[in-house]
Amino acid sequence: MPSPTALHPLFVYGTLLTGLPNHALFSLADKVTHVRGAILKRHDMYSLNDWYPVIVEAGGGEEAEAAEVRGEVMYFAEEHYTSILMRLDELESYHGPSSNSNMYIRAEGKVTLTSPPVPLAAAAKLSSLETPQEKEGEEIQVYYYRWNRPLDPQYFKRIESGDWKEHIDAIQRKTSKQQDGIAGTAARRDCGH
Fold first, then answer.
1. How far is CA 130 from the centre of its chain?
2. What is the Cα–Cα distance from 79 to 154, expressed in whole angstroms?
3. What average pLDDT does range 90-107 have in this prediction?
4. Alpha carbon of residue 181 to chain centroid
5. Which CATH class is domain 10-162?
6. What pTM was computed for the model?
7. CA separation (Å) from 88 to 58, 145, 172?
8. What is the bridge-based pairing of β-strands 32-41 and 118-119?
9. 59-73: string of b/e by CB count within 10 Å (b at 16+)?
10. Model confidence pLDDT, tens digit, residues 158-187
11. Cβ distance 54 to 45 under 8 Å?
């Protein structure tokens, strides 16, 4: 895995978001000093079978201008920066800029900040840590992982909102309603109705 050339924060938009599975799996709360909301413009989000998020650069035209992905910017404690980025390169099957086998590319781009920085567990352990000074609405340079494979429409569905947490919440509400419906039907059948 290649080392980063600059210590940019990381923009995440899927399972690495705070509160989602890979955030905990990679113990990011212990390595991330601050997190804040952000938008990556001119990108579209897709879901592989409703559980695997990917983003790609939007095509041309007006739709591309309106396309955006909502996520979080994570600022890593400097002593963890290279090691966590290399672990995430592994997760995303990124093997360097010249590799033909990359599932994702670790790209550099700009995001627009949408919230103030929130300190996480790693910030409490570092007394000399500075809070990020960029203001809401500012653009900052970040790394992010972009899909590097064809999007087969049979398996990929565009997420119109560009918001993975919103997408997951909608799936869970739908699943819960379906389960409630099944339970209600079974209860009526058991009562002889």
1. 24
2. 43
3. 95
4. 32
5. alpha beta
6. 0.86
7. 24, 9, 26
8. antiparallel
9. eeeeeeeebbbbbbb
10. 999 999 999 999 988 887 776 665 555 555
11. yes
Please give the structure tokens belonging to residue 115: 């919230």
Give the confidence band of 30 by pLDDT, cuts at 50, 70, 90. confident
CA distance 117 to 73: 9
- If you write DSSP's letter for every residue of the chain in order, what string do you get? -PPPSS---EEE-STTSTTSHHHHHTTGGGTEEEEEEEEEESEEEEEETTTEEEEEE--SHHHHHH-EEEEEEEEEPHHHHHHHHHHHHHHTT---TT-TT-SEEEEEEEEEE-S--EE-HHHHH-TTPPPP-PPTT-EEEEEEEEE-S---TTTEEEETT-BHHHHHHHHHHHHHHHHHHHHHHHHHHHTT-
Phi, psi of 39 (to 5 degrees): -125, 130
Task: Please report, for the chain, the start and end positions of each structural domain, with discontinuous segments joined by +.
Answer: 10-162
pLDDT tier for residue 132 given thresholds of 50, 70 and 90: confident
Structure tokens at 150: 């064809």
Would you state the pLDDT for residue 141? 97
